[in-house]
Write a structure and sequence with these properties.
Number of helices: 4
Helix content: over 70%
Order of helices and strands: HHHH
Number of domains: 1
Radius of gyration: 18 Å
Number of strands: 0
């Protein structure tokens, strides 16, 4: 019983540290991270394949959406699907 009470402060500290690290990594991810650069390049390729004019602001918006959603759901495909729909609606594509 005594050892269980010693684990709880550790779990609380671990949880607080996890939240802090996630918020720091989100800020870093949105900047010029590898994930963001890949997202921008993939978005550009998709736009060109669809014979649409590439727009940096649309790409930035879509990739910000993707990174936020990916960090929330940890699902690459769910993040892509949601953000494609949102970007199409927002920018009338």
């Amino acid at each position: 019983m005594g050892s269980n009470t010693k684990k709880y402060p550790f779990l609380v500290m671990f949880s607080l540290l996890w939240v802090f690290l996630n918020s720091v990594s989100l800020a870093e991810t949105k900047n010029n991270s590898v994930m963001n650069l890949f997202c921008i390049e993939n978005f550009k390729d998709e736009m060109l394949k669809a014979n649409l004019k590439y727009d940096v602001e649309i790409a930035k918006n879509a990739c910000d959406c993707y990174l936020d959603e990916f960090l929330k759901t940890t699902s690459h495909q769910k993040a892509i699907n949601k953000c494609k729909l949102e970007t199409k609606k927002k920018f009338n594509l």
